[in-house]
Amino acid sequence: MSLILFLILGSLSSPAACEEWSVDPSTGYFRVILLKEGLLAGLGHDHVIDARDVRGEISIADSSSSVRLEINAAGAEIDSAASRSEEGFAKEVGESDRVKIRANMRGPKGLDVQRYPMIKFDSASIERVESLKGLWMVSGAFALHGSTGTLEFPVTLSERPGGYWASGYVRIRPSDYGIKPFSVMGGLIKVQDEALVKFNLGLRALGSVPGR
Predict the structure, then answer these.
(1) Residue 5: which of 70, 71, 57 has the closest Cα?
(2) Residue 160's domain is classified under what CATH number?
(3) In order along the chain (212 residues), what is the average pLDDT of each group of 10 residues?
(4) Between β-strands 147-160 and 163-172, what pairing exists: parallel, antiparallel or unpaired?
(5) Fewer CB within 10 Å, N or C, the chain?
(6) Cβ-Cβ contacts under 8 Å for 180 (sequence gap 6 or more)
(7) What is the secondary structure of the chain as a DSSP string?
(8) Residues 6+ apart with CB under 8 A from 90
(9) What pLDDT, on a 0 to 100 scale, did the predictor assign at position 20?
(10) Are 3 and 156 in contact (CB under 8 A)?
């Protein structure tokens, strides 16, 4: 999303103009991949988490811009058949297992959505990668599970009807945010302490406000 800000900023015809954009909730995805490890990893599952409620507010001006992304942690789903298929995970997760996995993900030993209902990202800097067309590096504050860290990741922009796609990825360590990776059988089956966050988000214009 931050990438889009700078491309639009460069296209503004008036220094006094201000444009506002938001995430289009009807398109795209925001997804987390968790892989298994351990001596008996073959008995466990890799996991796919989908954020179903992603909100973004973007303000663009000639002299400054701001981006705020919020994810409703309680709305996150895990291991849907469609998402697992898209990520190439052939092993199915039964519905009874999904219910247990979802409860662990949202519960006190996971995201703890009752105490920390929102996951947030606020951009601090956005820089064009001059050698690669359409690629930008974004950094900012990422708040998860009551802890805040700094993330830096690439974002690629492409056009779509009525707006843009912003796609990218970043890897995080859940333990850096106070989340201990789930394990069973004394660690013989466990989740890796590295999560791959992937996104392909659509932006739509909210309009412009002259002179602001």
Answers:
(1) 57
(2) 2.40.128.110
(3) 42 44 86 87 84 80 66 94 92 90 93 95 81 79 96 84 85 94 80 93 66 38
(4) antiparallel
(5) C
(6) 109, 174
(7) -HHHHHHHHHH-S-TT-EEEEEE-TTS-EEEEEEEEESTTGGGS--EEEE---EEEEEEEESS-EEEEEEEEGGG-EE--HHHHHHTT--S---HHHHHHHHHHHHSTTTT-TTT--EEEEEEEEEEE-TTSTTEEEEEEEEEETTEEEEEEEEEEEEEETTEEEEEEEEEE-GGGGT-PPPEEGGGTEEEEEEEEEEEEEEEEEEEE-TT-
(8) none
(9) 75
(10) yes
Q: How many domains are there within the chain?
A: 1
Q: What pLDDT was estimated at residue 196?
A: 96
Amino acid found at 21: W
The tokens for 98 are 């999904």
Provide the token pair at 103: 């409860």
Q: Which two tokens stand for residue 142?
A: 């990422």
Q: List Cα–Cα distances, 171 to 100, 135, 174, in angstroms.
A: 25, 18, 10
Domain that holds residue 202: 2-208
